[in-house]
């Protein structure tokens, strides 16, 4: 007798309806393998746990709002021979998350800063950590929009609490008021309370240029970001360089006119 029709409503009441997806297959497996009742039950519970973990993972991945699926396995370390691979793999373990330490990644355009930041974010998601990925411009715009609707404090508190916040393209555009103050407030709230990853095209000594109107605010913000931070410099050729067709001849520069 098929037990599924009677078990269905009860499993749904107990919020275990996912067991129905594997019940028939596990039932046949138990009969063929002459499994003990406890072993059969263990298989069903294991399936349910795996299903719930996958659901949680998918939910965290969706909330993270990554641009693309960039993982560490896809990162081309060969293009960056000077990059400290040991540090990257150590960060992938998530130790900096427990330390609530910043991770700062700088380098020219196209060297893989966003890829590396998102890859570390994916590692965190797989470890059960909530992550938010955003550009610096989108972050400050969202805070300013929340201010306009009276929800600034709530938005700031939400961003301050997320265990890992990834801020991409810091310094790409100069921070004008109130964006510079909003970023400072957020970094101050997260300081030693949660981990933050920041990527930038600016070299570390140039970061204060992102605050053209308030050097004091720049100093206060960057001092918190740099404290106990893990720093990486990605120095190599851009992977966005145009491809040359096989067998084609590269154009030679034109001679200057006499």
From TrEMBL:
The keyword Lipid biosynthesis does not apply. InterPro entries: AAA+_ATPase, DNAC/IstB-like, IstB, IstB_ATP-bd, P-loop_NTPase. Keywords: ATP-binding, Nucleotide-binding. The keyword Nucleotide-binding applies. Residues 99-231 form the AAA+ ATPase domain. One of its GO terms (molecular function) is ATP binding. Pfam families: IstB_IS21 (PF01695). It comes from the Bacteria. GO terms for biological process: DNA replication. Belongs to the IS21/IS1162 putative ATP-binding protein family. PANTHER family: ATP-BINDING PROTEIN RV3427C IN INSERTION SEQUENCE-RELATED, CHROMOSOMAL REPLICATION INITIATOR PROTEIN DNAA. This is ATP-binding protein.
